[in-house]
Amino acid sequence: MLTLFTTPKPFRGHIKTIQTNAIQSWTLLHPQCEIILFGDEEGTAEIASHFKANHIPQVECNEYGTPLIGSMFKLAQETAHHPLVGYINADIILLSDFIPALQRVLWPAFLVVGRRWDIDIKEPVDFSRADWEKQLRTQLLKAGKLHPPTGIDYFTFPRGQYCDIPPFAVGRAGWDNWIIYHTRGMKIPVIDATKAITAVHQNHDYSHHPAGKAGVWGGAEARQNRTLAGGHKHVFNIHDANWVLSSRGIRRACPMKSLYQSGLRLVESIIRALKQTPPPG
Q: Mean pLDDT over residues 47-57, rounded?
């Protein structure tokens, strides 16, 4: 039914633990998913072999060596053996509600996104326990935090839906927002599945980037991503979804959310313009 693809960071230290947790959780989904791991970072080939995932080491990168979203989306859709494909960040644990939620979406074109739950996980999850998911849900109730709608960690859609995506750098700001903007522009339904899908984000640091968190969100690659996206007016988030998926089915989203997002973007644009306007002489 579904092909999941991602590009992991180097498998070292805590990042190794949480990425292994995430990928192993994907192998337990039912029906079983095809998994594609892109890139040649340390440990990727070994993890792909261990979990019988498809490993594609050669993916187009920018001048900084960062894999490009457009290349991955193209290769994943060409390689996938299933009608649905999904990009997912390599630190997201998926639970048993993921596939049943997708099975309720029967439209020929759509994009499923959703908010994530943030939680600290320091050790390997014991997936051999029959109650591992129950234990994790208990942890979420006690210590998990629902991330704001600006965090977009998975995208699921019919194979062949996206062509000619700009050369965004993965893991840098802006590209995920553009995907939602672009999909709405194509008049394709964007579905917020937060109420139906429990996506578990394992908190981590930003030591994978030389400049840390500031480099990820404000560095040269992030600035380039925002330029490729076409500026702030194309920065959409999950509140810009026009449909909502829950256990009761699919319904139209509250239009006030979209109006709020549009108004917020307008106000921020005006503030930026005023800051750039020189004072009267």
A: 98
Token pair belonging to 183: 């999909």
**Cα 173 to Cα 171: distance, rounded to the nearest angstrom:** 7
pLDDT band at 46 (very low <50, low <70, confident <90, very high): very high
Q: Are 42 and 12 in contact (CB under 8 A)?
A: yes
| All structural domains of the chain | 2-276 (3.90.550)
Q: What confidence tens digit (pLDDT) does each residue in 85-112 have? A: 999 999 999 999 999 999 999 999 999 9
- H or E stretch at 19: helix 13-27
Helices 220-229 and 175-185, axial angle in degrees (round to 10): 10
Classify the phi-psi angles of 104: left when phi > 0, otherwise alpha if psi is within -120 to 50, otherwise beta. alpha
Residue 55 — φ and ψ, nearest 5°?
A: -110, 120
Q: How far is CA 168 from the centre of its chain?
A: 14
Taking a C-beta distance cutoff of 8 angstroms, is the pair 12, 43 a contact?
Answer: yes
pTM more than 0.85: yes
Q: Across all residues in the chain, what is the average pLDDT?
A: 90
Cβ atoms of 68 and 60 closer than 8 Å? yes
